[in-house]
Amino acid sequence: MTMPDRRAVLAALGALSITPSVAFGSEYIDLEWTDLVPEGQPALPPVIQDLIQHDGPDMSRQQPVSHGVRTDWNGEIVRLPGFVVPIDYSGTGVTAFILVPFVGACVHVPPPPANQLVFVTTQTPYEGSGLFEAVNVIGMFGTASTSTQLADIAYALSADHIEPF
């Protein structure tokens, strides 16, 4: 991710973080990946069969077109399960990552549409168990267009809590 892109994402996340976080009890909205796709738009197929061509164009060029976003949960505290694709580290912990709906997304298969990817940042580095760890992320959610070398991303989540799935 280029520095201006990262600054824009951090600014957008900062705007989302104006309201204080709530406790991690039941005071969050449980989201599923299908909740992020606008009504009438196709959800991801259950099995992705096309592996990327490693000697072909970069993955962001193989990303399917996204057909809109849902703004229903902008500014809300949500919990969303997914898999970690690390972007930034602090020490041995991840401080920024792409939350993806299935193992291999953005690395071994073309990335999902932008409305099926979430850019997650956390002030407390997450010490995960490795690439593609399944996690639940709880925090402030919203739409925020971001571009990385791996994919275009339509959503952002400022994580207050990350736990193994």
CATH superfamily: Protein of unknown function (DUF3299)
> What composes the largest sheet?
5 strands, mixed, barrel
Q: Over all CA atoms, what is the radius of gyration?
A: 15 Å
Poorly predicted ranges (pLDDT <50, ≥5 residues)?
Answer: 6-23, 46-52
Shape: globular
Question: How many distinct folded domains?
Answer: 1
Give the helix/strand class.
mainly beta
What's the SSE pattern? HEEEEEE
Tell me roughly what share of residues is in helical segments.
under 10%
Mean pLDDT equals 79
* CATH domain class name: Mainly Beta
Q: How many strands in all?
A: 6
* Distinct helical segment count: 1
**Percent in strands:** 35-45%
The CATH topology is given as OB fold (Dihydrolipoamide Acetyltransferase, E2P)
Strand arrangement within the widest β-sheet reads 2-3-4-6-5
N- to C-terminal distance: 27 Å
Overall description:
The protein is globular. The protein has one domain: Protein of unknown function (DUF3299) (OB fold (Dihydrolipoamide Acetyltransferase, E2P), Beta Barrel). The chain has one helix spanning 3-16; strands at 29-30, 77-90, 93-100, 118-126, 134-147, 152-164. It has 165 residues and is mostly beta strands. The chain has a 5-stranded mixed beta barrel.
